[in-house]
Amino acid sequence: MSVPSGPVRPQAGPAGELRYFLTALGYFTRVPLPGWLARWVGFEPHYLHAAARYFPLVGLLVGAVGALVTWAAMLWWPIGVAVLLGMAATLLLTGAFHEDGLADCVDAFGGAWQREDVLRIMHDSRIGAFGAIALVVALLLKWQLLVAIGERSGLAVLLAVMVAAHAASRAMAVSYLATLAYVRAEGKARPVAQRLAGTGLLFALLCGVVPLWVVSPRFCAVALVALLGLRWLLGRYFVRRIGGYTGDCLGMAQQCAEILLYLVAAAWMWS
Fold it and tell me: Does some domain include residue 83?
């Protein structure tokens, strides 16, 4: 089925919005849908553009699952084990979708300099030394930072930060759809790669900002400043190296933003 090259007129009404949300859920997670519901949704490739606004909301749900598993595991095991089980739940739920993007980007940016070579390596499904090291460091950082947040600030703050970080990091990543160009002629992210603007962009950003504010208004302010700085640095780097972004770049951005939020939360002096 061919994918329209320009923006697709969204389906109006709640039914259309539900289709786009379920498309986002199906694209970014491995949540199985009943056959009748999958047939109703249809999962047309061009739905992904309209579904982009819901990616942070999907992140909110992923974070909630991780927080729920962590909370349940705390009833039986130490915090280190509980956090690791919560992380494992999010990895199973997403199929390590964003972690794969991080590994591909680090392999590509670390293993080549010319734009064509970077894109070729990024497209290769095999993982190299740079990507493997990046995955190990990223997962260890998340684990230790979440344990530190729980030990210093308590279980309630830990769970709230987990949920907020998953939502806000995806909002930061998807914001690149509003400002950068997609650099591949074809690709799995191509249907997503239309400009995100207007109410769709505002909704996506609110899904990222509101959970941070729920954790703490002051924490939200500090976290937003940190995310804006990271967004500027990564965006500038992507443009300089390849002229824009790919789907893997969005995965890398999400992972970097999630880790940054945990760093801020672990350093925060909670009252």
Answer: yes
29 assigned to some structural domain? no
Angstrom distance (rounded) from CA 80 to CA 30: 26
pLDDT tens per residue across span 16-54: 677 777 777 777 778 877 666 656 556 666 667 777 888
Look up residue 226 and give its two tokens. Answer: 């940190």
Domain total in the chain: 1
Model's pTM, two decimal places?
Answer: 0.89
Domain extent for 250: 54-267
Per the model's pLDDT, the better-predicted residue between 12 and 104 turns out to be 104
Whether 126 maps to a domain, the answer reads: yes
- The mean pLDDT of 114-135, rounded to a whole number, is 89
Task: Provide the token pair at 26.
Answer: 């199906």
Residue 223 lies in a domain: yes
Give the Cα separation of 79 and 75 in Å (integer). 9
Helix 79-94 vs helix 155-174: angle between axes, to the nearest 10 degrees?
30
Buried b vs exposed e over 138-168: b needs ≥16 C-beta within 10 Å? Answer: bbebbbebbbbbbeebeeebbbbbbbbbbbb
d(CA 61, CA 200): 19
Closest CA to 212 of 55, 83, 60, 68: 60
96: left (phi over 0), alpha (psi -120 to 50) or beta: left
* Four-point Cα dihedral 122, 262, 63, 215, nearest 10: -140
Task: Indicate the SS3 state at residue 245.
Answer: strand
Confidence of residue 155 (pLDDT cuts 50, 70, 90): very high
**What was the pLDDT predicted at 254?**
97
